[in-house]
Amino acid sequence: MATPDPAPARLEGLHGSRRDAILAAAAEYFAEQGYHSAGMRGIADSVGIKGASLYNHFTSKEEILYAIALKMTRVPVEEHLLVLDESGTPAERLTSLIDVHLRHLAVNRVEHLVSLRELSALTGEHRDRVLEYRKYYQRRVRDVIAAGIRAGEFDDVDALRAAVAALDLMNGVSWWLRDDHDIDALVATYVEYIVDGILRHRPRAESGTGDPTAHR
Predict the structure, then answer these.
(1) Which residues of 191-204 are buried (b: 16+ CB within 10 A; e: fewer)?
(2) pTM, whole model, 2 decimals?
C-alpha cells in the first residue's frame, strides 16, 4: 500500500525551528482570530517578522494553513506508523501507536485543532492531499486491528469502524487538552479505552496462537 505523494517541494523549503516557529505562531493566531478573520499582516505580526518576509515563505494565508495541516498529517504518517512495523503483537503495536499519537497531539495541540477546525478553508487540491494522508493513516490502523482480530487478541469487530472510533477518540483531545495535563496518565487511559474497551483485548494466553501475518 503506497503512501500519498509527497508535498510540493516549495512548502518543504523551510526546515527546523524557524519553520516550526512560523507555523506555531500562525496557528495560535488562527485559533484566536479565526482563519477567515486573519490577514497576512496580522500573521506576520504574530510571528514577529515583517509582512514582506512572510511573503518570502508563503504566498497566502491559505498556504500557511495548508502547511499547518500538512504537518499534522504527514508527520504522523512518516513517523508514527513506524511503530506498526516493529516486533510485537497487534495489541502491543497499537498501544505504541496510541502513545506516540497522543504525545504528538499534546505538543502540537493548537496546530492540530486549527487543522481540524479549518479543513474546509483549504482549496480542493490541498484538502484532498491532507485527506489522503488521513485516510492512509486510518487504513494502517485498520490493518493492525484486523491482524489482532485474526490472531484472536481482539473481538470480531468491524476493523474499519473500530479504527475510525479509535482515531476520533484520540484526535478529540485537541479540543480540551491543556499544558498541565498528565500525558502519561492520558496515554494509559486511552490505551484502556481503545485496546481494552473498543477492541476488548484478550491476552495471548487466552487468544491462542498468533497470526502469522501480524508483522506484515
Answers:
(1) bebbbeebbebbee
(2) 0.81
